[in-house]
Design a protein that fits this description.
alpha+beta; globular; 281 residues; single chain
């Protein structure tokens, strides 16, 4: 089993975790069941607040749009969180990456709020099911890896909390200073089950599946290239099964309207008439 799909933060070296906020250069390792640990230098200092402007906020939204959420977990003692996504991207050579999975590490984490509900995303009466922070990864994995969409995921916590309407499955805070400068909001949407998740943090790093750190602007550029190619009808994007939809359109609203049309069509269709013949031999 590939640990990238399980969000392998739990296997970070303990010394790295203990000193993660020291501001020194550290080594980050991804481990797998079939290969030795691969490491890369982390060149960005932890413990400082990442300044995300509107352009980067929108760029991260583009890079994460329609990505598949494979894992998300939090180590509260180290105030670290890790999310694993399979993203839509094109390299600077114009080709899809050999492995589309990336892992984003958030630190320090100041708050985590989740709402797991039995019902559709817009069911305002569906109560939240309680679970513990250490169960978050299993809850996310339980959805089997579903896409996130909507173009906006960074610093949208107000809207996410409003949709939860106080129906929290968990609400964890670190009790320490910092960790609240930015937030990432993701979800998982099944027909009769829904998860809202918001994690607050100060800084983030992006890694490929082989442990190589990706500069934030490069990560954003890869996503922007893919979406520009998709809107241009580039054949390299067709395997994703995504058709052009104007940016800013609420996909859930569009899908809900399509579903409503299907239901109305089925309701208005006359029932099949039996010919009344004897079907017995």
């Amino acid at each position: 089993m590939n640990l990238m799909s399980l969000s392998c933060i739990a296997r970070l070296p303990q010394a790295w975790l203990t000193n993660v906020s020291s501001g020194q250069r550290k080594r980050y390792s991804f481990e797998s069941d079939t290969a030795a640990a691969q490491t890369s230098d982390v060149r960005q200092k932890w413990g400082s607040r990442l300044d995300i402007g509107d352009e980067q906020r929108q760029g991260l939204g583009t890079a994460l749009n329609e990505s598949t959420l494979l894992g998300f977990e939090v180590l509260p003692e180290q105030r670290l969180a890790a999310a694993t996504f399979s993203v839509l991207a094109l390299t600077n050579h114009g080709d899809p990456p050999a492995d589309p999975r990336v892992q984003i590490i958030f630190s320090p984490v100041g708050r985590v709020v989740a709402s797991l509900r039995d019902g559709s995303w817009d069911d305002c009466r569906a109560p939240a099911r309680r679970f513990e922070l250490n169960e978050l990864l299993e809850v996310v994995k339980g959805f089997g890896g579903l896409p996130i969409y909507g173009w906006e995921f960074i610093d949208t916590d107000d809207a996410s909390l409003a949709s939860m309407a106080g129906r929290y499955s968990l609400d964890w805070t670190s009790g320490e200073t910092g960790g609240l400068s930015h937030s990432i909001s993701v979800f998982q949407d099944e027909a009769d089950r829904y998860l809202d998740l918001v994690v607050w943090f100060d800084d983030l790093l992006v890694f490929t599946s082989d442990g190589t750190q990706v500069p934030l602007d490069d990560f954003i550029a890869g996503g922007e290239r893919w979406w520009d190619a998709m809107y241009a009808g580039d054949s390299r994007t067709k395997s994703a099964g995504i058709f052009p939809m104007p940016k800013g359109r609420n996909k859930r609203t569009v899908l809900r309207r399509l579903l409503s049309r299907v239901r109305r069509s089925l309701r208005d269709s006359p029932p099949e008439q039996s010919d009344g013949g004897d079907s017995s031999a």
